Amino acid sequence: NLSWDSLLSRDKKGLWWLSGSDxxxxxxxxxxxxxxxxxxxxxxxxxxxxxxxxxxxxxMNTEIRRSVFVVLMSSEDYVDAFERLVGLGLKxxxxxxxxxxxxxxxxxxxxxxPYYFHIAMSLIKQSKQHKLSFIFTISDKLKELSKLNARGxxx
Length: 155
Fold this sequence. Notes:
By secondary structure, the protein is mainly α. The protein has helices spanning 4-8, 27-37, 49-57, 63-74, 78-87, 97-108, 114-126, 128-143, 150-154. α4 crosses α6 (97-108) and α6 packs across α8. The longest helix has 16 residues, at 128-143. The chain is globular. InterPro entries: CWC22_splicing_factor (IPR050781), Initiation_fac_eIF4g_MI (IPR003891).
């Protein structure tokens, strides 16, 4: 159950409206976000809050999705993005978030951007699990096709 102090502290993350949920993020989620935002840009400034704010605006509602989003938006090129995504060390169901975020970002672009294609192909070549995740995610997006605007359909 939730403690009274947890309910009163609004600045913490969590699903406070769900019974039994806790407002604290897990240690692993915090580490993944830290690796996404700081671990791979030695000698550069750390990421400002802009990427985190952008992730929130795009409804990236979990630490894993925010981490993947930050990697995609802050990488220098698709090779850097691929290496950083692999470097996040996601396992199992966490890896399935990568195609979801990647396709979401691709659909939001004003015009087709091959950056996302190259990242997807690199991931697919690396692992059969990534290939299956992309197949299922694309299948889900195709089911939602009627809800997308013209730009989203073209991308």
